[in-house]
Write a structure and sequence with these properties.
434 Repressor (Amino-terminal Domain); globular; mainly alpha
Length: 77
């Protein structure tokens, strides 16, 4: 899966699991809600280091965790 798609899925997953709106994330990171939305929709091609560091701190994850998508198996065994 392309890194941009992984980032968009992981960011939304982390935000929803934390019970945060896009607006709340934007406020915490001192950015616009549209920027968070763009990340989640894949409209943005790059993430600057300041934003990446802020996301990692907010969601308490390492940078690599934003770019790794682990599919949970539903099969038994």
């Amino acid at each position: 899966m392309p890194p941009r798609r992984v980032l968009r899925l992981r960011l939304r997953e982390l935000r929803e699991n934390a019970g945060l709106s896009q607006e709340a994330v934007a406020l915490a990171l001192r950015t616009r809600r549209a920027r968070i939305s763009d990340l989640e929709t894949g409209a943005v091609m790059r993430v600057d280091g300041v934003l990446l560091a802020g996301l990692c701190e907010l969601f308490d994850v390492e940078p690599g965790a934003l770019f790794v998508w682990e599919r949970v198996s539903t099969r038994n065994g």
